[in-house]
Protein backbone atom coordinates (compact mmCIF):
# COMPACT_ATOMS: atom_id res chain seq x y z
CA UNK A 1 0.00 0.00 0.00
CA UNK A 2 2.84 2.38 0.88
CA UNK A 3 4.54 1.48 -2.40
CA UNK A 4 1.37 2.16 -4.43
CA UNK A 5 0.92 5.55 -2.79
CA UNK A 6 4.58 6.37 -3.40
CA UNK A 7 4.16 5.62 -7.11
CA UNK A 8 1.18 8.00 -7.19
CA UNK A 9 3.28 10.70 -5.48
CA UNK A 10 6.02 10.18 -8.09
CA UNK A 11 3.45 10.61 -10.85
CA UNK A 12 2.18 13.73 -9.11
CA UNK A 13 5.69 15.22 -9.15
CA UNK A 14 6.09 14.49 -12.86
CA UNK A 15 2.78 16.28 -13.33
CA UNK A 16 4.00 19.13 -11.11
CA UNK A 17 7.07 19.60 -13.28
CA UNK A 18 5.19 19.62 -16.61
CA UNK A 19 3.78 23.19 -16.44
CA UNK A 20 6.93 24.69 -14.89
CA UNK A 21 8.93 24.72 -18.13
CA UNK A 22 6.34 25.16 -20.90
CA UNK A 23 5.86 28.95 -20.73
CA UNK A 24 9.42 29.60 -21.88
CA UNK A 25 9.17 26.94 -24.59
CA UNK A 26 5.88 28.27 -25.96
CA UNK A 27 6.49 32.01 -25.55
CA UNK A 28 8.25 32.57 -28.92
CA UNK A 29 4.97 31.65 -30.65
CA UNK A 30 2.60 32.88 -27.93
CA UNK A 31 4.03 36.41 -27.96
CA UNK A 32 3.30 37.28 -31.63
CA UNK A 33 0.00 35.40 -31.52
CA UNK A 34 -1.17 37.47 -28.53
CA UNK A 35 0.48 40.63 -29.90
CA UNK A 36 2.11 41.59 -26.59
CA UNK A 37 5.61 42.81 -25.63
CA UNK A 38 8.22 40.10 -25.07
CA UNK A 39 8.67 41.06 -21.40
CA UNK A 40 5.11 39.92 -20.63
CA UNK A 41 6.52 36.41 -20.17
CA UNK A 42 8.42 37.61 -17.12
CA UNK A 43 5.31 39.20 -15.64
CA UNK A 44 3.32 36.01 -16.23
CA UNK A 45 6.07 33.99 -14.56
CA UNK A 46 6.07 36.31 -11.55
CA UNK A 47 2.27 36.07 -11.29
CA UNK A 48 2.45 32.28 -11.20
CA UNK A 49 5.29 32.45 -8.67
CA UNK A 50 3.32 34.91 -6.53
CA UNK A 51 0.41 32.47 -6.30
CA UNK A 52 2.84 29.69 -5.43
CA UNK A 53 4.39 31.73 -2.62
CA UNK A 54 0.98 32.59 -1.13
CA UNK A 55 -0.28 28.99 -1.18
CA UNK A 56 3.01 27.71 0.27
CA UNK A 57 2.65 30.08 3.23
CA UNK A 58 -0.88 28.88 4.06
CA UNK A 59 -0.30 25.23 3.14
CA UNK A 60 0.49 24.25 6.72
CA UNK A 61 -3.00 25.19 7.93
CA UNK A 62 -4.66 23.60 4.91
CA UNK A 63 -2.76 20.34 5.38
CA UNK A 64 -3.57 20.16 9.08
CA UNK A 65 -7.28 20.73 8.41
CA UNK A 66 -7.91 18.68 5.26
CA UNK A 67 -4.98 16.25 4.99
CA UNK A 68 -2.38 15.83 2.26
CA UNK A 69 -4.52 13.68 -0.04
CA UNK A 70 -7.42 16.13 -0.32
CA UNK A 71 -5.15 19.16 -0.67
CA UNK A 72 -3.14 17.43 -3.41
CA UNK A 73 -6.26 16.37 -5.31
CA UNK A 74 -7.99 19.77 -5.16
CA UNK A 75 -4.76 21.64 -5.95
CA UNK A 76 -4.10 19.43 -8.98
CA UNK A 77 -7.66 20.12 -10.13
CA UNK A 78 -6.90 23.85 -9.85
CA UNK A 79 -3.79 23.51 -12.02
CA UNK A 80 -5.67 21.42 -14.59
CA UNK A 81 -8.45 24.02 -14.84
CA UNK A 82 -5.91 26.83 -15.05
CA UNK A 83 -4.01 25.11 -17.89
CA UNK A 84 -7.33 24.58 -19.67
CA UNK A 85 -7.90 28.30 -19.23
CA UNK A 86 -4.68 28.96 -21.16
CA UNK A 87 -6.24 27.03 -24.06
CA UNK A 88 -9.42 29.14 -24.04
CA UNK A 89 -7.89 32.52 -23.08
CA UNK A 90 -8.77 35.12 -25.76
CA UNK A 91 -6.21 37.67 -24.56
CA UNK A 92 -3.20 38.21 -22.31
CA UNK A 93 -5.49 39.49 -19.55
CA UNK A 94 -7.11 36.06 -19.25
CA UNK A 95 -3.70 34.41 -19.15
CA UNK A 96 -2.90 36.51 -16.08
CA UNK A 97 -6.23 35.47 -14.54
CA UNK A 98 -5.42 31.79 -15.14
CA UNK A 99 -1.86 32.23 -13.85
CA UNK A 100 -3.18 32.89 -10.34
CA UNK A 101 -4.87 29.48 -9.73
CA UNK A 102 -1.98 27.79 -11.56
CA UNK A 103 0.45 29.19 -8.99
CA UNK A 104 -1.86 28.62 -6.03
CA UNK A 105 -2.36 24.97 -6.94
CA UNK A 106 1.31 24.27 -7.59
CA UNK A 107 2.49 25.71 -4.25
CA UNK A 108 0.04 23.67 -2.16
CA UNK A 109 0.91 20.42 -3.97
CA UNK A 110 4.63 21.03 -3.65
CA UNK A 111 4.64 21.78 0.07
CA UNK A 112 2.15 19.01 0.90
CA UNK A 113 3.89 16.21 -0.98
CA UNK A 114 7.34 17.23 0.23
CA UNK A 115 6.20 17.14 3.86
CA UNK A 116 4.39 13.83 3.39
CA UNK A 117 7.44 12.13 1.90
CA UNK A 118 9.74 13.68 4.53
CA UNK A 119 7.63 12.30 7.39
CA UNK A 120 6.60 8.93 5.90
CA UNK A 121 9.45 7.71 3.68
CA UNK A 122 13.23 7.39 3.75
CA UNK A 123 15.70 9.94 2.37
CA UNK A 124 16.34 8.23 -0.98
CA UNK A 125 12.69 8.65 -1.92
CA UNK A 126 12.97 12.42 -1.50
CA UNK A 127 15.90 12.54 -3.93
CA UNK A 128 14.08 10.37 -6.47
CA UNK A 129 10.92 12.43 -6.00
CA UNK A 130 12.70 15.58 -7.14
CA UNK A 131 14.35 13.65 -9.95
CA UNK A 132 10.83 12.88 -11.19
CA UNK A 133 10.07 16.60 -11.08
CA UNK A 134 13.02 16.98 -13.45
CA UNK A 135 11.47 14.37 -15.73
CA UNK A 136 8.26 16.42 -15.87
CA UNK A 137 10.16 19.68 -16.43
CA UNK A 138 12.04 18.02 -19.30
CA UNK A 139 8.93 16.48 -20.88
CA UNK A 140 6.93 19.74 -20.79
CA UNK A 141 8.86 21.47 -23.60
CA UNK A 142 9.02 18.18 -25.53
CA UNK A 143 5.22 17.91 -25.48
CA UNK A 144 4.78 21.58 -26.36
CA UNK A 145 7.26 21.26 -29.25
CA UNK A 146 5.01 18.68 -30.92
CA UNK A 147 2.28 21.31 -31.24
CA UNK A 148 4.33 24.34 -32.30
CA UNK A 149 6.62 22.76 -34.91
CA UNK A 150 5.20 23.82 -38.28
CA UNK A 151 1.90 24.92 -36.73
CA UNK A 152 2.02 27.40 -33.84
CA UNK A 153 -0.93 25.83 -32.00
CA UNK A 154 0.48 26.49 -28.54
CA UNK A 155 -3.02 26.33 -27.08
CA UNK A 156 -3.26 22.65 -28.01
CA UNK A 157 -0.02 22.03 -26.14
CA UNK A 158 -1.53 23.53 -22.99
CA UNK A 159 -4.68 21.49 -23.51
CA UNK A 160 -2.66 18.27 -23.79
CA UNK A 161 -0.84 18.97 -20.52
CA UNK A 162 -4.16 19.95 -18.88
CA UNK A 163 -5.54 16.56 -19.99
CA UNK A 164 -2.63 14.78 -18.28
CA UNK A 165 -3.38 16.77 -15.12
CA UNK A 166 -7.07 15.80 -15.22
CA UNK A 167 -6.09 12.11 -15.40
CA UNK A 168 -3.95 12.60 -12.30
CA UNK A 169 -6.85 14.38 -10.56
CA UNK A 170 -9.01 11.29 -11.12
CA UNK A 171 -6.28 9.02 -9.75
CA UNK A 172 -5.79 11.21 -6.67
CA UNK A 173 -9.50 11.31 -5.82
CA UNK A 174 -9.83 7.53 -6.28
CA UNK A 175 -6.89 6.87 -3.95
CA UNK A 176 -7.81 9.29 -1.15
CA UNK A 177 -8.30 6.45 1.40
CA UNK A 178 -4.65 5.41 1.02
CA UNK A 179 -3.19 8.61 2.48
CA UNK A 180 -4.08 7.85 6.08
CA UNK A 181 -2.91 4.23 6.01
CA UNK A 182 0.85 4.72 5.54
CA UNK A 183 2.77 4.52 8.82
CA UNK A 184 5.34 7.15 9.69
CA UNK A 185 8.94 5.93 9.33
CA UNK A 186 10.22 5.00 12.82
CA UNK A 187 13.56 6.84 12.72
CA UNK A 188 11.85 10.19 11.98
CA UNK A 189 9.67 9.79 15.06
CA UNK A 190 12.71 9.11 17.23
CA UNK A 191 14.69 11.95 15.74
CA UNK A 192 12.00 14.52 16.39
CA UNK A 193 10.40 13.19 19.56
CA UNK A 194 12.55 15.27 21.92
CA UNK A 195 12.22 18.34 19.75
CA UNK A 196 8.43 18.12 19.67
CA UNK A 197 8.10 17.95 23.44
CA UNK A 198 10.04 21.20 23.71
CA UNK A 199 8.34 23.03 20.83
CA UNK A 200 4.64 22.16 21.00
CA UNK A 201 3.64 25.68 22.05
CA UNK A 202 6.27 27.62 20.08
CA UNK A 203 5.45 29.48 16.88
CA UNK A 204 7.37 27.88 13.99
CA UNK A 205 9.25 31.05 12.99
CA UNK A 206 10.47 31.46 16.58
CA UNK A 207 12.08 28.03 16.67
CA UNK A 208 15.85 28.43 16.76
CA UNK A 209 17.42 27.68 13.40
CA UNK A 210 14.31 28.09 11.23
CA UNK A 211 15.42 31.44 9.82
CA UNK A 212 18.85 30.02 8.93
CA UNK A 213 17.13 27.13 7.15
CA UNK A 214 14.98 29.62 5.23
CA UNK A 215 18.11 31.55 4.21
CA UNK A 216 19.66 28.35 2.83
CA UNK A 217 16.53 27.66 0.77
CA UNK A 218 16.46 31.26 -0.47
CA UNK A 219 20.00 31.16 -1.81
CA UNK A 220 19.71 27.60 -3.12
CA UNK A 221 16.75 28.37 -5.37
CA UNK A 222 18.24 31.73 -6.26
CA UNK A 223 21.42 30.16 -7.62
CA UNK A 224 19.55 27.30 -9.34
CA UNK A 225 17.32 29.75 -11.23
CA UNK A 226 20.17 32.21 -11.83
CA UNK A 227 22.32 29.65 -13.64
CA UNK A 228 19.36 28.44 -15.70
CA UNK A 229 18.26 31.94 -16.74
CA UNK A 230 21.59 33.71 -17.34
CA UNK A 231 24.05 30.89 -18.06
CA UNK A 232 23.52 30.94 -21.84
CA UNK A 233 23.79 34.75 -21.98
CA UNK A 234 27.12 34.56 -20.11
CA UNK A 235 28.46 31.96 -22.54
CA UNK A 236 27.37 33.92 -25.61
CA UNK A 237 28.58 37.32 -24.47
CA UNK A 238 31.71 36.42 -22.52
CA UNK A 239 32.84 33.14 -24.08
CA UNK A 240 31.76 33.90 -27.68
CA UNK A 241 29.78 30.69 -28.06
CA UNK A 242 26.95 30.43 -30.63
CA UNK A 243 23.51 30.70 -29.00
CA UNK A 244 22.54 27.13 -29.94
CA UNK A 245 25.74 25.72 -28.40
CA UNK A 246 25.26 27.81 -25.26
CA UNK A 247 21.70 26.47 -24.89
CA UNK A 248 23.02 22.90 -25.17
CA UNK A 249 25.59 23.56 -22.47
CA UNK A 250 22.93 24.93 -20.13
CA UNK A 251 20.75 21.89 -20.87
CA UNK A 252 23.63 19.77 -19.55
CA UNK A 253 23.37 21.79 -16.32
CA UNK A 254 19.73 20.69 -15.97
CA UNK A 255 20.68 17.15 -16.94
CA UNK A 256 23.24 17.26 -14.12
CA UNK A 257 20.54 18.20 -11.61
CA UNK A 258 18.12 15.49 -12.79
CA UNK A 259 20.73 12.72 -13.06
CA UNK A 260 22.39 13.85 -9.84
CA UNK A 261 19.15 13.53 -7.90
CA UNK A 262 18.57 10.04 -9.24
CA UNK A 263 22.11 8.99 -8.28
CA UNK A 264 21.96 10.71 -4.88
CA UNK A 265 18.92 8.57 -4.04
CA UNK A 266 21.27 5.58 -3.95
CA UNK A 267 24.01 7.51 -2.14
CA UNK A 268 21.60 8.27 0.74
CA UNK A 269 21.82 4.59 1.72
CA UNK A 270 25.38 5.35 2.86
CA UNK A 271 25.35 9.07 3.73
CA UNK A 272 23.00 11.07 5.94
CA UNK A 273 21.20 14.25 4.87
CA UNK A 274 23.71 16.60 6.50
CA UNK A 275 26.61 15.00 4.64
CA UNK A 276 24.66 15.05 1.37
CA UNK A 277 23.93 18.78 1.77
CA UNK A 278 27.52 19.65 2.67
CA UNK A 279 29.01 17.55 -0.14
CA UNK A 280 26.62 19.02 -2.71
CA UNK A 281 27.47 22.55 -1.66
CA UNK A 282 31.21 21.84 -1.93
CA UNK A 283 30.80 20.39 -5.44
CA UNK A 284 28.62 23.32 -6.54
CA UNK A 285 31.18 25.79 -5.17
CA UNK A 286 33.98 24.00 -7.06
CA UNK A 287 31.94 24.21 -10.27
CA UNK A 288 31.25 27.91 -9.72
CA UNK A 289 34.98 28.56 -9.21
CA UNK A 290 35.69 26.89 -12.57
CA UNK A 291 33.45 29.52 -14.15
CA UNK A 292 35.30 32.36 -12.41
CA UNK A 293 38.87 31.31 -13.15
CA UNK A 294 40.45 32.29 -16.51
CA UNK A 295 40.66 28.71 -17.79
CA UNK A 296 40.16 27.23 -21.29
CA UNK A 297 36.59 27.19 -22.61
CA UNK A 298 35.73 23.59 -21.83
CA UNK A 299 36.42 24.14 -18.15
CA UNK A 300 33.30 26.34 -18.25
CA UNK A 301 31.30 23.37 -19.53
CA UNK A 302 32.70 21.31 -16.67
CA UNK A 303 31.74 24.12 -14.31
CA UNK A 304 28.09 24.10 -15.44
CA UNK A 305 27.87 20.31 -15.09
CA UNK A 306 29.55 20.37 -11.65
CA UNK A 307 27.21 23.11 -10.41
CA UNK A 308 24.22 21.00 -11.56
CA UNK A 309 25.55 17.82 -9.96
CA UNK A 310 26.36 19.70 -6.76
CA UNK A 311 22.95 21.34 -6.50
CA UNK A 312 21.19 18.01 -7.14
CA UNK A 313 21.14 16.53 -3.59
CA UNK A 314 20.86 19.79 -1.66
CA UNK A 315 17.19 20.71 -2.06
CA UNK A 316 15.66 17.24 -1.44
CA UNK A 317 18.04 16.58 1.47
CA UNK A 318 17.19 19.90 3.15
CA UNK A 319 13.48 19.17 2.73
CA UNK A 320 13.82 15.64 4.08
CA UNK A 321 15.75 16.89 7.11
CA UNK A 322 12.95 19.28 8.15
CA UNK A 323 11.04 16.97 10.55
CA UNK A 324 14.27 15.83 12.22
CA UNK A 325 15.51 19.40 12.60
CA UNK A 326 12.35 21.04 13.90
CA UNK A 327 9.91 18.27 14.88
CA UNK A 328 6.95 16.67 13.10
CA UNK A 329 4.54 18.94 14.99
CA UNK A 330 5.73 21.95 13.01
CA UNK A 331 7.09 20.30 9.87
CA UNK A 332 4.03 21.00 7.69
CA UNK A 333 4.03 24.71 8.48
CA UNK A 334 7.81 25.07 8.24
CA UNK A 335 7.81 23.11 4.97
CA UNK A 336 5.36 25.65 3.57
CA UNK A 337 7.56 28.53 4.73
CA UNK A 338 10.58 26.87 3.16
CA UNK A 339 8.82 26.44 -0.18
CA UNK A 340 7.58 30.04 -0.10
CA UNK A 341 11.08 31.41 0.58
CA UNK A 342 12.54 29.08 -2.05
CA UNK A 343 10.13 30.41 -4.68
CA UNK A 344 10.91 33.95 -3.53
CA UNK A 345 14.60 33.36 -4.19
CA UNK A 346 14.02 31.88 -7.64
CA UNK A 347 11.56 34.67 -8.53
CA UNK A 348 13.52 37.75 -7.48
CA UNK A 349 17.26 37.00 -7.39
CA UNK A 350 17.69 36.24 -11.14
CA UNK A 351 15.82 39.42 -12.25
CA UNK A 352 17.83 41.42 -9.69
CA UNK A 353 21.04 40.14 -11.26
CA UNK A 354 19.62 41.04 -14.67
CA UNK A 355 19.27 44.66 -13.54
CA UNK A 356 22.83 44.64 -12.21
CA UNK A 357 24.18 43.09 -15.42
CA UNK A 358 22.34 45.67 -17.53
CA UNK A 359 24.07 48.47 -15.63
CA UNK A 360 27.49 46.78 -15.61
CA UNK A 361 28.35 43.50 -17.36
CA UNK A 362 27.11 39.90 -17.66
CA UNK A 363 30.70 38.99 -16.80
CA UNK A 364 29.70 39.28 -13.12
CA UNK A 365 27.60 36.10 -13.53
CA UNK A 366 30.16 33.56 -12.20
CA UNK A 367 31.12 35.85 -9.29
CA UNK A 368 27.47 36.13 -8.22
CA UNK A 369 27.05 32.34 -8.53
CA UNK A 370 30.02 31.87 -6.18
CA UNK A 371 28.59 34.41 -3.70
CA UNK A 372 25.15 32.76 -3.68
CA UNK A 373 26.58 29.27 -3.19
CA UNK A 374 28.87 30.58 -0.43
CA UNK A 375 25.92 32.29 1.30
CA UNK A 376 23.93 29.03 1.14
CA UNK A 377 26.90 27.08 2.55
CA UNK A 378 27.40 29.61 5.36
CA UNK A 379 23.69 29.53 6.33
CA UNK A 380 23.66 25.74 6.33
CA UNK A 381 26.84 25.34 8.39
CA UNK A 382 25.68 27.98 10.87
CA UNK A 383 22.44 26.03 11.24
CA UNK A 384 24.32 22.75 11.79
CA UNK A 385 26.43 24.39 14.50
CA UNK A 386 23.35 25.84 16.21
CA UNK A 387 21.44 22.53 16.16
CA UNK A 388 24.49 20.68 17.49
CA UNK A 389 24.77 23.19 20.32
CA UNK A 390 21.07 22.84 21.21
CA UNK A 391 21.31 19.04 21.11
CA UNK A 392 24.34 19.14 23.43
CA UNK A 393 22.48 21.39 25.88
CA UNK A 394 19.48 19.01 25.95
CA UNK A 395 21.73 16.03 26.58
CA UNK A 396 23.40 17.82 29.53
CA UNK A 397 19.99 18.71 31.02
CA UNK A 398 18.63 15.18 30.61
CA UNK A 399 21.81 13.72 32.15
From TrEMBL:
<keyword id="KW-0812">Transmembrane</keyword>
<keyword id="KW-1133">Transmembrane helix</keyword>
<feature type="transmembrane region" description="Helical">
    <location>
        <begin position="40"/>
        <end position="59"/>
    </location>
</feature>
<feature type="transmembrane region" description="Helical">
    <location>
        <begin position="252"/>
        <end position="271"/>
    </location>
</feature>
<feature type="transmembrane region" description="Helical">
    <location>
        <begin position="94"/>
        <end position="116"/>
    </location>
</feature>
<dbReference type="InterPro" id="IPR020846">
    <property type="entry name" value="MFS_dom"/>
</dbReference>
<protein>
    <submittedName>
        <fullName>MFS transporter</fullName>
    </submittedName>
</protein>
<dbReference type="InterPro" id="IPR011701">
    <property type="entry name" value="MFS"/>
</dbReference>
<keyword id="KW-0472">Membrane</keyword>
<feature type="transmembrane region" description="Helical">
    <location>
        <begin position="352"/>
        <end position="378"/>
    </location>
</feature>
<feature type="transmembrane region" description="Helical">
    <location>
        <begin position="283"/>
        <end position="315"/>
    </location>
</feature>
<feature type="transmembrane region" description="Helical">
    <location>
        <begin position="161"/>
        <end position="180"/>
    </location>
</feature>
<comment type="similarity">
    <text>Belongs to the major facilitator superfamily.</text>
</comment>
<dbReference type="Pfam" id="PF07690">
    <property type="entry name" value="MFS_1"/>
</dbReference>
<dbReference type="InterPro" id="IPR036259">
    <property type="entry name" value="MFS_trans_sf"/>
</dbReference>
<feature type="transmembrane region" description="Helical">
    <location>
        <begin position="212"/>
        <end position="232"/>
    </location>
</feature>
<feature type="domain" description="Major facilitator superfamily (MFS) profile">
    <location>
        <begin position="5"/>
        <end position="387"/>
    </location>
</feature>
<feature type="transmembrane region" description="Helical">
    <location>
        <begin position="128"/>
        <end position="149"/>
    </location>
</feature>
<feature type="transmembrane region" description="Helical">
    <location>
        <begin position="71"/>
        <end position="88"/>
    </location>
</feature>
<keyword id="KW-0813">Transport</keyword>
<dbReference type="InterPro" id="IPR051788">
    <property type="entry name" value="MFS_Transporter"/>
</dbReference>
